[in-house]
Automatic annotation (TrEMBL):
Residues 37-142 form the Methyltransferase domain. This is SAM-dependent methyltransferase. GO terms for molecular function: methyltransferase activity. Keywords: Methyltransferase, Transferase.
Length: 245
């Protein structure tokens, strides 16, 4: 299996590819869609779980998603058909930075996918070009809760702490109007689900040629989480509006 296939398998029981539970997702979407008839864009949508939930709970919302994974987009299309919301969902198979649209969007999503656009601040700059007047951005990214070890930085990459992250967002012309910091339970549930699901699959398919690779991957990632970054890494999801000039 390639990394995309492994990721898809790992998220079987946690389709939101970020450490957020269902209540947190519902609450954030409710606050980000105050009218209920918004046009929504997800940059790096994957299998479009955020969009599917927005469309299911808000019958007057229309949404578009952009991603480079054709298999994820096809999965999203099939789910949308089963849910009866496919007429309100448009999916684009392309890089997020190359996406253009003839119309702006009232809400732009990018949760756990800022790497697709080069990081948090480049993602916000890209979002600004697509945002309608009075619109909102719902963005989620990691941060360091405590000073990380060099090993943690090597595994996850470098992040700011939460105050610095918010300061950077504000300095770049955005005002936070709501936010959510993932709880320890959400963070732990996400990690246990991902690596446990992979291990479970490998143990259930002992004769599959990929089984040893998957079990090794699961064991390595679980060990990295528990020993390297569990006590230092966090995740925040912010609802932002442009700050008046």
């Amino acid at each position: 299996m390639n990394r995309e296939q492994i990721s898809k398998l790992a998220h079987t029981h946690h389709p939101i590819k970020s450490p957020l539970n269902d209540d947190s997702v519902s609450s954030l979407l409710s606050q980000a869609l105050p009218r209920g008839d918004e046009r929504v864009l997800d940059l790096g949508c994957g299998s479009a779980e955020w969009l599917l939930r927005a469309l299911t709970t808000h019958p007057d919302v229309h949404a578009e998603g952009v991603d480079i994974s054709e298999s994820d987009l096809e999965e999203a299309r099939q789910k949308a058909v089963r849910l009866g919301i496919d007429a309100r969902l448009t999916l684009h198979h392309q890089k997020a930075e190359d996406f253009t649209s003839p119309h702006p969007f009232d809400l732009i999503l990018c949760v756990g996918s800022t790497h697709a656009l080069g990081g948090l601040l480049p993602t916000l700059e890209a979002a600004r070009t697509h945002l309608a007047p009075g619109g909102r951005v719902l963005i989620g990214d990691g941060f360091w809760e405590r000073t990380p070890t060099p090993e943690a930085i090597e595994v996850l990459g470098d992040f700011a702490d939460l105050p610095t992250l918010v300061d950077q967002v504000v300095t770049n012309g955005w005002t936070p109007v709501q936010g959510h910091t993932s709880t320890r339970q959400e963070l732990d549930d996400y990690e246990w689900s991902n690596w446990g699901t992979l291990a479970d699959w490998a143990l259930d398919h002992p004769t599959h040629p990929d089984s040893p690779q998957i079990l090794t991957w699961a064991t390595t990632r679980r060990t990295e989480w528990l020993h390297t970054y569990r006590d230092s890494w966090g995740f925040t999801t912010l609802i932002l509006r442009p700050t008046p000039a």
